[in-house]
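Dear colleague,

Following up on yesterday's call, I've attached the two folding results inline so they're easy to grep. Please treat them as preliminary; we haven't cross-checked anything against experimental data yet. The first protein's sequence and structure tokens come first.
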Amino acid sequence: MTEKEIQNHIWENREDWTKLLSKIEFPKKIEIENPSHLTPSQAIFNMIVTQYEKHYNSLYELELIGCEVPLKKDSDSTIRADFLGVLGGRNGLTVVELKKSKQTERQAYTELLAYGSHLKTLFSPMSKMDIAYVLISPMEERIVREATINSILYDKTNVIAMIPKWENDDINTLVLEPWIPTFKEIDSLTTSCFSGSNFDVFKVTWDALEGDWSPAEDGEDPDQDMIDKMNSVSAYAAQIMEAKGIHGFVYTMQNWSETKGMGHLINAIVIGGINPYKATKNRVLTTKYDLKQNEADEVLIDYFDIYEIIPELKREDKAEGDYKPNHLSDLSMTWNNEISGICFDIVKTLTKSLDKEWIETSYGGFDWERYQRNTMEDSYCHNFEMRVTGLIRELFFEYSKMDYDFIRKNGEEDHMQYWHGDIPNYLVDISTHQYYLRNFILRLFNPYFEFMDNIEGDEEE
């Protein structure tokens, strides 16, 4: 059976499209009796399965409106989408790409995204929710399976993969069965991301601007207008981080007015994000070399090579003593510079005024654990609203909804994070609260407190 025969059969039966969809039972969400013991990978699996099932159910409303559709502009080469469709009752065009063999499915996402890009140009400005993708493919290549998971999890693409199946080479037996990622596949892509050593933190400070942004007199606290200004800075920063796909947190703070004698740059924005290169280093060390998370944390990225991650790269042999660039370390440093650049741009934009051409700024870089131990940086100050972004935001609300459901039914005593009973009645009251969000980030780092025994054992020795 050829790919063209499958394409023709689907098109000829477009009026009965739903009969081609295999009715299967989606895997159950991982049920944890007490959400205190939920791991990030388990939460992510539940999120993906829920979203994936929603996409699959929407296919029953899909109307195919074109087959072998040429997408081109004048003087450009033509690309052809296998199918175009619209989802009834939902916003969005649907691109359907068909690949019959393992050999051809490797090009699937290149072509899918090319078609999508063309449609976004035609219907500019399209948002991510305005276009959906369906990949019909054997899903035998690991790179295709991982690309599907990454597209859903990190790129927020509306995509679903369907496996074509038939019996005895009979086209009339063709069915399309949804490919569903396993927990193991999801865990392998997300493991070791959530570690304190992967969170790079940058702090940009700026002038006190007494009377407008900070108190004019020593010993005074900022008034509500000043607090609102600072919270507007973090709200804007969170929007920028979301747009750039940064998974982390942001907040503003202000040193106590009594400390101005030590320096007048008392206003600050603090941005923390998961450095993807450090996270990848840890993932390789824990999966390929069987290191524990805390052991992987101790391996500096300066001593880890990009060839460990992309072994297909050809290394040029150099004589001993010659300079050997560490591309991974360089990429990590560049990522850090981009984050600090975001901080400076935000401060420069939001402190623009009618009476000042220039405002003095400064900056510093930390890891999250070290920053919180620095009393001058994190204690003698007013910490304002905190906002989480990207996957951290999604996980926070996924965890919190489960926490509230559990506590409403069982009380706080058996909940490891909220046993003290100090939890507001409404979830909204913890959504930007420093105390609850910081504890949640620590919870992601070490959901099982798995290193505590090792630490205690080391101390005894």
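Below is the second protein, in the same order (sequence, then structure):
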Amino acid sequence: MFFLCLGGSGVILSTYFSAVSIYFSSKNIILQRKLNIIENTFELLSRWDDPHFLDARKWTRKAKEEKPDTSDNNLIKKIKENEELKQSVVLVLNYLEHVRFSLETNRIDRKLFKRALGETLVDIAKRFEPYAETLGQQNKEDLKELIGYLEKD
């Protein structure tokens, strides 16, 4: 009888320890996911300072000042005529696509990202929308989706 009770308590204890182990493992997984999201957010924010984006960022500031006087067709023409500028703009559009995809898949924290770069990226996305459309309808739709992600509360 003693051995039967001892065996039963062994089953109960091993089940209990398994449940506790599963509980702590799931807590660690949830914590790791949150840390990954913060790290992904920081990494994507840091990439905005990449020197490859510098030319496009300088040019976008200038384009913003000229926008009321620059038609969409003139904007497209200026980009297409300058190969270095075109490459910079394409790099920025690729970055915006990474941001959109990261927001769509919850890889990054939308509130933190929006607070840091939201207005800036919305402004740039709207400015380059006419050029993005020349690259394909999907590019334009992706920019609109990104703008939607960054403008909603």
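For the second protein, one point worth flagging: The chain has one domain: 36-151.

Best wishes,
A.L.
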